[in-house]
Design a protein that fits this description.
Length: about 450
């Protein structure tokens, strides 16, 4: 397949140069390039498009359906006893054959039927690879020749190339939109299955979270407790602590770097600050669990406070440090993008530098600053590793930052870890939590858009 791709790319380059060369030859016949409708490069792109698009479509279709076609033909060649088995048994048999063929351990298989089926599978796959290679290259050559015949002085090559690019952009946008719709629908459908078993009122307003299903009906909480309020409160508590740390520090850092720091200091300080964004979250988790949490516990004990070994405060503080680059970098870019004329105008009217920053630059850059804070908020809500290692897994309903809490994302990971049945309320609860998290993020976006629209109307 790699050889096919390399050959196809070579044909596309060849088509581009042949198309451009042919357009220049036509230009000399009709007294110069000005007689051509488009620039010579567009004719080369047109030939490359005719050579590439049909071949790529065929290659993508074969790649998508190759597995089904080959496995179906392999299954049809098996003995009747295997073909009449149940669908689950047939799936296991074909999986064994495919694994045997792709692992290269045919000689170690003792079952002659499966060994022969694996050889047949490899033979069919090889035939399919050669066939698609020949078809793709032949189609690419035919498209190249057809594209060369389309080159004429009055051919609207630029219009056709731009139309293809426009449709490619529309396709990329459609993929992004359809992916979003698919994610929402997949979560929504599974969440509806959960709400058939558990009341939405219990999920939204219940104060106890204990999704472990009891084995016997006489056990306490045999039907499980799915009140998600402790999870959402824990998520908001840790996120609030993180934003209280990250927002002022990040914003002040951005103001200093954009308005007060020298170019030499800024060139060094900004990359060093942004290194924080590249540190893995598990490293932050280790730092929170081994350094910050013990320090907070010792400090609390010295002050006579009862501090849990895993606390929301420890997780929130470390998460806030992690979020500083998100707020700082975007806020710095937004403040630096404010036109110089606004600074000079404020200073010319007698305003001090601090007054210019407070009354001109910050309001004008507020949409970018809000975007940075929103990005940091989304990152805080979705963080998992720091919470697991520093705040724990206890679903406590509390707003005391010195106690252990957990978040929605941590519980989603916990519910979906290991061998789980996807038809029990315990597992389906993860999708309900994901749906709730989606609506929280959506509301944050709505609020941010409202703030941005209000200040844009005021300052533009």
């Amino acid at each position: 397949m790699k050889i096919v791709l390399v050959t196809l790319i070579a044909l596309l380059l060849l088509g581009y140069f042949l198309g451009r060369k042919r357009s220049l030859r036509l230009a000399r016949r009709v007294s110069g390039k000005r007689k051509l409708h488009s620039l010579p490069g567009y004719y080369g792109y047109l030939v490359a498009i005719w050579a590439g698009i049909p071949a790529v479509v065929i290659l993508l279709l074969w790649t998508s359906f190759q597995g089904r076609i080959v496995t179906s033909l392999t299954m049809a060649d098996l003995p009747a006893s295997m073909q009449t088995a149940s669908s689950d048994e047939r799936g296991l048999i074909i999986n064994e054959i495919v694994n045997l063929a792709e692992s290269g351990t045919l000689a170690q298989e003792s079952d002659p039927v499966k060994q022969a089926a694996a050889r047949h599978y490899l033979h069919l796959k090889q035939i399919g690879d050669w066939a698609v290679a020949v078809v793709v290259l032949v189609v690419a050559l035919l498209g190249l020749l057809f594209g060369l015949t389309r080159i004429k002085p009055d051919a609207r090559a630029r219009n056709q190339v731009e139309a293809v690019i426009r449709w490619a952009m529309i396709g990329c946008s459609a993929v992004a939109i359809l992916t979003t719709v698919g994610i929402v629908l997949s979560v929504l459908l599974e969440a509806l299955r959960f709400f058939h078993a558990v009341s939405p009122l219990e999920f939204l307003f219940g104060l106890k979270w204990s999704p472990q299903m009891a084995i016997r009906s006489d056990q306490v909480g045999s039907s499980g407790a799915f009140g998600a309020v402790p999870l959402f409160v824990g998520t908001l508590l840790i996120s609030s602590i993180a934003l209280i740390i990250a927002t002022p520090l990040g914003l002040m850092s951005a103001i200093f770097l954009s308005e007060y720091a020298s170019p030499r200091f800024r060139a060094v300080a900004k990359p060093v600050l942004e290194i924080l964004a590249g540190i893995p979250t598990v490293v932050y988790g280790f730092f929170a669990a081994l350094t910050v949490a013990p320090f907070i516990r010792q400090l609390g004990e010295a002050a006579g406070l009862n501090v849990a070994s895993e606390s929301a405060l420890a997780a929130g503080l470390v998460m806030g440090i992690m979020l500083i680059p998100f707020v700082s970098s975007l806020s710095d870019d937004a403040i630096s993008a404010v036109p110089r004329a606004m600074r000079d105008g404020a200073l010319g009217l007698g305003a001090t530098r601090s007054e210019t920053i407070k009354q001109v630059l910050i309001p004008a850059a507020l949409p970018g600053i809000v975007g940075g804070v929103l990005l940091a908020t989304s990152r805080a809500i979705g963080e998992t590793m720091i919470v697991v290692m520093a705040a724990g897994l206890s679903a406590n309903l509390t707003i005391n930052p010195l106690e252990a809490v957990t978040t929605v994302t941590v519980q989603i990971v916990t519910l979906l870890t290991g061998d789980q049945e996807f038809d029990s309320p315990k597992t389906l609860a993860a999708f309900a939590l994901g749906l709730g998290l989606f609506f929280i993020t959506l509301m944050l976006n709505v609020v941010a858009l409202h703030v941005i629209r209000r200040y844009r109307e005021q300052y533009e």
